[in-house]
Design a protein that fits this description.
Layout lengths: L9 E5 H18 L2 E5 L9 H5 L4 E4 L2 H11 L2 E5 L5 H10 L2 E4 L2 H7 L9 E5 L25 H10 L9 E3 L8 H19 L6 E3 L13 H15 L2 E4 L3 H4 L3 E12 L3 E5 L3 H4 L2 H4 L10 E3 L5 H9 L20 H4 L16 E7 L7 E7 L8 E5 L19 E5 L5 E5 L3 H6 L3
Parallel strand pairs: 1-16, 2-3, 2-9, 3-4, 4-5, 5-6, 6-7, 7-8, 8-9, 11-13
Antiparallel strand pairs: 1-10, 10-11, 10-15, 12-14, 13-14, 16-17
Helix pairs in contact: 1-8, 3-4, 7-8
């Protein structure tokens, strides 16, 4: 089935692009001499784990359920980090994970001596107190952060009772979000300054540099990353791990949606069967505006002055009279398989039709963004949001009884194969 024929809403994962990303990651891992893990918190489509497992060294989890999924479906190295573990889950977590990383010394003291942890490599997350990003919601080094042990706290704990330290065989440090390797370099400098002497401890065998590395992005400086990792390995004689999430499926997915209706209230709003609140929560949380195939993003129209400014540029901000327009152009589904880069240069320079894209939930702020097109868009047309494999399926919800998008995989020849379809029973099953 072609992507233009599938029912909406739907997530479609492009296996050709996914494998391109995986090849890059495998090459980087081999050249740097490090191990690369899938961060399941970003992408947990386990139907693709056999493919991912051919290129990566394993998976990392944020708790028991992800840890079980990695153990069952990836069956390679399995790591877990959680800010705090539940006592009744600890034995099972240790039984399915090779590495268990603790967020505090108190958690190490509580669990490291359990028989279930005897054969597990235990780690401690540290906080280098080095912010390199602007998104406070995703900054583990922000003031009063709950994530990781600061050097001051570690030294205090060691002074009081250093018995826990002999149980630790690795350190974990995660500070990045969608960043290049220059930010990693800054982070590593801070890490070494504060924790270098602990990395030199004889029992420390590995260093996990967390995620947030946009390794498969076109402008990512991979050579710098390779140099950083090699130097760390040589200096401290440790195994180095990276656990990217977004980089695995970056630009490898679409959210396909249909226009259900339009509302003209000064600015034409298209109502979709997809929702920012339900199907792409990061749009509202971060916030950000997702790329849309065949359209360009417009800065958020906040008031009448913004609207008039667009109209002065010759853009149409209200729906055209259908009786005077030709049949809708719609999106061109043949472009979808080749548009993952977000390059719209072949779509024409003039995009005169401006629309706000929203959903049919009752949340007034459930707005995806404002976009301009080179043709009118009408009810019945399909739209293709890009880069929708990551932080989408893992975060969606059924607010307002919205249907969960079905999940599809797109083969290299463009054929789409259904992986999972959701219905009323899935909605009902999450309630009581």
């Amino acid at each position: 089935m072609k992507i233009s024929d599938i029912s909406t809403p739907a997530y479609v994962v492009d296996e050709k692009k996914l494998e391109e990303n995986l090849r890059i990651l495998k090459e980087v891992g081999e050249q740097a001499g490090c191990k690369i893990l899938l961060a399941q918190k970003a992408f947990s489509m386990f139907a693709e784990y056999p493919l991912i497992g051919r290129y990566l060294d394993g998976a990392t989890a944020s708790g028991l359920f992800e840890a079980r999924l990695g153990a069952e479906k990836m069956r390679k190295e399995n790591h877990v980090f959680s800010p705090a573990y539940k006592e009744e889950e600890m034995d099972e977590i240790a039984s399915v994970c090779d590495h268990v990383i603790f967020n505090s010394v108190s958690q190490v003291r509580k669990y490291a001596g359990r028989p279930s942890c005897a054969e597990t490599s235990l780690g401690l997350r540290v906080n280098p107190e080095c912010s390199t990003q602007e998104h406070g919601i995703y900054d583990p080094c922000a003031s009063f952060s709950r994530l990781g042990v600061t050097v001051e706290k570690l030294e205090k704990e060691l002074a009081e009772d250093d018995g826990f330290w002999s149980k630790i065989s690795g350190l974990h440090c995660h500070t990045l979000c969608e960043q290049n390797s220059d930010a990693l370099e800054v982070t590593v400098e801070a890490l070494e300054e504060k924790f270098g002497k602990y990395l030199q401890s004889p029992q420390i065998r590995w260093l996990n540099l967390g995620g947030g590395h946009h390794i498969t992005r076109a402008d990512y400086d991979r050579e710098r990353l390779i140099r950083i990792v090699r130097r760390l390995r040589e200096t401290y004689q440790v195994e180095v791990y990276l656990e990217p999430g977004e980089a695995i499926a970056l630009n490898a997915g679409y959210l396909v949606t249909e226009v259900l209706d339009e509302v003209d209230n000064g600015l034409t709003t298209l109502l979709l069967d997809a929702s920012a609140a339900c199907h792409m929560p990061d749009v509202l949380e971060m916030p950000y505006q997702p790329p849309l195939q065949g359209a360009e993003q417009v800065p958020r129209i906040e008031n009448l002055a913004d609207l008039r400014a667009l109209e002065k540029r010759g853009m149409k901000t209200v729906a055209p009279d259908r009786e005077q327009e030709d049949a809708s152009c719609g999106m061109n589904p043949s472009r979808v398989a080749d548009s993952a880069s977000g390059d719209n240069s072949n779509l024409g320079e003039e995009k005169a039709y401006v629309y706000r894209l929203s959903s049919c939930t009752c949340l007034a702020g459930d707005v995806i963004g404002d976009y301009c097109f080179d043709h009118p868009v009408r009810p019945g047309d399909r739209l293709y949001f890009e880069d929708m494999a990551i932080y989408s399926m893992v975060k969606n919800n059924t607010f307002n009884g919205m249907a969960l998008p079905s999940i599809w995989r797109m083969k290299p020849d463009g054929e789409c194969v259904l992986v999972k379809k959701f219905g009323y029973e899935d909605f009902k099953g999450r309630l009581s």
